[in-house]
Specification:
With 253 residues, this protein is of the alpha/beta class. The protein has one domain (4-252): Aldolase class I (TIM Barrel, Alpha-Beta Barrel). 43% of the residues lie in helices and 15% in strands. The chain has helices spanning 16-30, 49-56, 82-87, 98-104, 108-120, 133-138, 141-152, 180-197, 200-205, 219-223, 240-252; strands at 4-9, 38-43, 62-65, 92-95, 124-129, 163-166, 207-211, 230-233. An 8-stranded parallel beta barrel has the order 1-2-3-4-5-6-7-8, surrounded by 5 helices. Strand 2, helix 2 (49-56) and strand 3 (62-65) form a beta-alpha-beta unit. Helix 5 packs across helix 7. The N and C termini lie close together (11 Å). The structure holds phosphoenolpyruvate. Phosphoenolpyruvate binds at residues 9, 11, 167, 172-173, 211-214, 232-236.
């Protein structure tokens, strides 16, 4: 079995002091832990990335950014390029999160452009996809997922350099989690799509994370599904007690 990847997405939360305190607590939590079957990743706001990568350099966790520009360096006020992230030794970068699609105009095309920039800079993209409640109720979830995959991966060579996060939008920050069966069904579809568009070996190796109100109470049932390889966790990853409890569960499974 491959390692679980447990990713905390802080979104736009925490002061610098709170962020530092969280990371110091995380160092304590991970100390002397057997972490052979799990990779822990935290994605703090961009202004804390330097502090976070400094701490991660000598501790058993990785750091990811929450977004990057689809452009190279240049006149793009407020943006952060993939090459800048590379120069800070970033491991991962989330792209295509539904909040960025909804509030900042992210599209499958821009996700594709960002994915390519991240690959040019040796950073692993965490590509988020997922359907709205209306799409699920209309019965078009699978079509939506396949369209998002086709858009994001257009002309992209995939091996083990990509993570996919299935995040049903109706489950993000709402407290409503997809049932393990609902999540497994879509994860299996994603893996099949990867097998058909790349090959079986890539499909076996690729990490497909679930995201959407994952918390200590439901993480076991989700992680034991055959095609769920970890979690992208928002709200519950802000609290060190909850985040460490979810890490404990993944270590135990
Ligand atoms: C997320 O931010 O990707 C997420 C899944 O959030 P939450 O866990 O709060 O639903």
């Amino acid at each position: 079995m491959q390692k679980f990847i447990i990713v905390g997405n802080w979104k736009m939360n925490k002061s610098f002091q709170e962020a530092e305190e969280f990371f110091l607590d995380l160092v304590d939590v991970l100390e002397n832990k057997e972490l052979d079957n799990i990779e822990v990743v935290v994605c703090p706001p961009a202004v804390y990335l330097e502090m976070a990568t400094d701490l991660a350099a000598c501790n058993p966790f990785s750091i990811g950014a929450q977004n990057c520009s689809q452009f190279d360096d240049g006149a793009y006020t407020g943006e952060i390029s993939a090459s800048m992230l590379h120069s800070m030794e970033m491991d991962y970068c989330i792209i295509g999160h539904s909040e960025r699609r909804q509030y900042f105009g992210e599209t499958d095309e821009s996700v594709n452009a960002k994915l390519k920039k991240l690959h040019e800079n040796s950073i692993v993209p965490i590509v988020c996809i997922g359907e709205t409640l209306t799409q699920r109720e209309k019965g078009v979830t699978k079509d939506v997922i396949v369209k998002q995959l086709s858009g994001a991966f257009q002309d992209v060579d995939v091996n083990d350099n990509v993570v996919i996060a299935y995040e049903p939008i109706w489950a993000i920050g709402t407290g409503k989690t997809a049932t393990p069966e609902q999540a497994q069904e879509i994860h299996a579809l994603i893996r099949k799509w990867i097998a058909e568009n790349y090959n079986e070996d890539v499909a076996k190796k690729i990490h497909i994370l679930y995201g959407g109100s994952m918390k200590p109470e439901n993480i076991d049932d989700l992680l034991i599904q055959p095609d769920i390889d970890g979690g992208l966790i928002g709200g519950a990853a802000l609290d060190i007690a909850k985040f460490s409890s979810m890490i404990e569960t993944a270590v135990r499974l």
